């Protein structure tokens, strides 16, 4: 089966960092999309996120002839976790490295997501932006406990402290999410370099004018606008995001 998904990607080191520790994967043929935001000193974060993407892609290729679903997506993330952890144990310079991961598999109008950390998956549906993933972060726990608002979390000094990551331990719990994907919906995968500086309301406003059939040139301009907002506001972190949409209303074809 061929996945009729179109994609746009933007990634930037930002205005502060020297290296880009984000990694991403776009595999439209297999319907697999990943963003990862690495962490760790001495460029270890760059190594961790790249290892995550490579491990997930490798597993997907190994299982290419088999039917795949959310269970296989979880296995791919677990394999990535173990590889990163093993590498950090062997190399003192990489000790403690880790990465977020938000991996998406598209199959016949369904979104299957495996998620660890504070990168995010969104769906823009009927003019409204919906966050599909739950951040594994200190401030998200405070929001859930009612101690701070979501708006306060965005400016909180500990907003970058995550409570779960790939590679920091030998085992990790992976969140699994399944959602329907209608023809009219846009999907956004992003690292926190976007959401720390651009509010969900602003993202929604940028995409609100979009209606099917989506025009690539218009979406390219929307992607550019999101990146402009990040950089205008300081670009304190690396930023990576993928915008995905249906190519045609037929969905999947043989």
Automatic annotation (TrEMBL):
SUPFAM superfamilies: PP2C-like. Residues 6-246 form the PPM-type phosphatase domain. GO terms for molecular function: protein serine/threonine phosphatase activity. Keywords: Hydrolase. Its EC number is 3.1.3.16. It is an enzyme of class 3 (hydrolase). InterPro entries: PP2C (IPR015655), PPM-type-like_dom_sf (IPR036457), PPM-type_phosphatase-like_dom (IPR001932). It holds the Pfam family PP2C_2. The keyword Cell membrane does not apply. It comes from the Bacteria. NCBIfam families: Stp1_PP2C_phos. This is Protein serine/threonine phosphatase, putative.
């Amino acid at each position: 089966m061929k996945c009729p998904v179109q994609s746009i990607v933007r990634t930037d080191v930002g205005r502060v960092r020297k290296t880009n520790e984000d990694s991403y994967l776009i595999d439209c043929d297999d319907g697999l999309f990943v963003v990862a935001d690495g962490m760790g000193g001495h460029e270890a974060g760059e190594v961790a996120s790249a290892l995550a993407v490579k491990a997930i892609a490798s597993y997907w290729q190994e299982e290419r002839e088999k039917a795949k679903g959310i269970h296989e997506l979880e296995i791919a993330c677990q394999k990535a976790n173990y590889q990163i952890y093993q590498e950090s144990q062997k190399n003192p310079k990489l000790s403690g490295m880790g990465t977020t991961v938000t991996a998406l598999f598209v199959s016949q109008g369904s979104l299957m997501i495996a998620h660890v950390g504070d990168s995010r998956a969104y769906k823009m549906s009927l003019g409204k932006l919906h966050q599909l993933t739950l951040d594994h972060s200190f401030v998200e726990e405070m929001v859930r406990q009612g101690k701070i608002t979501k708006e306060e979390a965005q400016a909180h000094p500990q907003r970058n402290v995550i409570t779960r990551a790939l590679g920091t331990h030998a085992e990790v719990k992976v969140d699994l999410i399944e959602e329907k994907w209608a023809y009219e919906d846009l999907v956004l995968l992003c690292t926190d370099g976007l959401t720390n500086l651009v509010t969900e309301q602003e993202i929604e406003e940028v995409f609100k004018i979009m209606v099917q059939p989506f025009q690539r040139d218009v979406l390219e301009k929307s992607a550019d606008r999101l990146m402009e907002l990040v950089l205008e506001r300081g670009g304190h972190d690396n930023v990576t995001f993928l915008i995905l949409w249906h190519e045609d209303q037929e969905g999947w074809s043989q």
